[in-house]
Amino acid sequence: MLTVLVSFLTALQFLGALPKGYAEGLAIWVYVVTYGGLFLWGVTAFIATLSFQHRIKNKQSPEKRVF
Prior knowledge:
Blueprint: H1 2-15, H2 28-60
Helix pairs in contact: 1-2
């Protein structure tokens, strides 16, 4: 849940809805790399968590499914 919150807040900061703090002397590419990287990390961790939960759920299922 914390990862989703961080990802959401990062996206809002990147879009300008939330202030970025003290920004004097920083170019826009710094924000793109930093906040874009944090956002992608958050999305990746969230997808990995969902994948792990799905895999564990399927292992605990008493019936075997053949695809």
